[in-house]
Amino acid sequence: MGFLSRKSKFVSPPTEEHPIVEELEEMEAAVPEETSEVSTAGPVPDDGGALRAGHGPSSTPPSSSSAPPAEETVVEDEPPASAVEIAEPEGPERLKARDLIAPSRHEAEAEEAAESEAPVKHAEVIAFANQKGGVAKTTTTLNLAVAFAESGHRVLCIDLDPQGNLTMSQGIDPDKVEKSLYDVLVHDMPISEIIVKKEIDIAVASIDLAGAEIAMSTKIGRERSLEKALKEVAADYDFVCIDTPPSLGLLTINALTAANKVIVPVQCEYLSMRGLVQLQNTLKMIQENLNPDVRIEGILPTMLDSRTVHAKEAVEILEENFGDLVFKSRIRKAIKFAEAPVKGSSVLKYDPQGNAAGYYRDLAKEVLANESA
């Protein structure tokens, strides 16, 4: 018996594979992608590898009586579960390298195209220019702006004249202003910091503006300083009215570069009209080099004394040379225009029912009609 028992230890049973091995091989053949993901994602458990090779925990091959326990130790759903757990970090919550860098050129172009498709309303910027002084530029700028405001429009006035007459006309002392357009043009201060709310919003001036042209002489892009400053508030207003100094220097060039329309107040006298030729030449250079969209909205006869023959002849000369560019509205002489600034108000507020106020209300209607046309 002892001999037989020793012999039984060395005689191996028939090499017949266990049924579970065939099932596993069939599963691997049916789902090759899942098994490859598991093998590349991480290490495979030792027990699963042993079962695929046909070896159990011990070196003794399993017999037919030990088959049920072998089936209990192997769970067919474990490999897919382990694959899901290993692939879990690659889900949508995981940050990828492309999420950590700036958008590509194509994405940036798509965003720019989407922004360009959305229409954004910008203010109509009107510059009141004439290199000759005393032609009612400041009076026209303020009172036309207030007439626009009476029509329900949002209006901003910009006092670009170092004399600060527009600022004074709203009851603000230019000598006591701490921040002005000088800081905006020279030091790039946001223009919203110098806007004061009166009858209309006004970007105030001070005597410092007299030195702005020298201070800006070495600045790159100095002709576009006002244009850049207005981008901050362009969507907040319907009209921006710019009062320019009586010259064709850098401040006036800034106004013409920022504007898309120019209204030219002209005193109904011969010497005042001669300056129109110089203004036209300057405007042509602005169109060629800085702002191709700017154009003359109209020429406004001001300080008209219809009792004199000379004034009538001056208007006729304007209409003969400039035709439809001459406004139908006429700003006649009135003492109220001189009295209103003393009270720190426009003539429309100082004498709302007077003829002087009516002149600028008619002009506002004409400008708005041209705008709608």
CATH superfamily annotation of the largest domain: P-loop containing nucleotide triphosphate hydrolases
Quickly give the CATH architecture of the largest domain.
3-Layer(aba) Sandwich
Order of helices and strands: HHHHHHHEHEHHEEHHEHEHEHHHH
Structural Rg:
43 Å
When the domains are counted, the total is: 2
What is the fold-level CATH name, i.e. the topology of the largest domain?
A: Rossmann fold
Q: Report helical residue fraction.
A: 40-55%
Shape: elongated
Number of helices: 18
Fraction in beta strands: 5-15%
Q: Which residues sit in consecutive blocks of at least 5 with pLDDT less than 50?
A: 1-11, 34-76, 81-87
What is the C-level CATH assignment of the largest domain?
A: Alpha Beta
Description:
There is one protein chain. The protein is α/β, with parallel strands linked by helices. The chain folds into two domains: 17-57 and 67-85, no CATH class; 125-372, Rossmann fold (3-Layer(aba) Sandwich). Helices cover 46% and strands 10% of the residues. The protein is built from 18 helices and seven strands. The protein has a seven-stranded mixed beta sheet with strand order 3-4-2-5-1-6-7, sandwiched between helices. Helix 3 crosses helix 6 (78-87) and helix 8 packs across helix 18. The longest helix has 20 residues, at 270-289. The chain is elongated, with a radius of gyration of 43 Å. The termini are far apart. The model is unreliable at 1-11, 34-76 and 81-87 (pLDDT under 50).
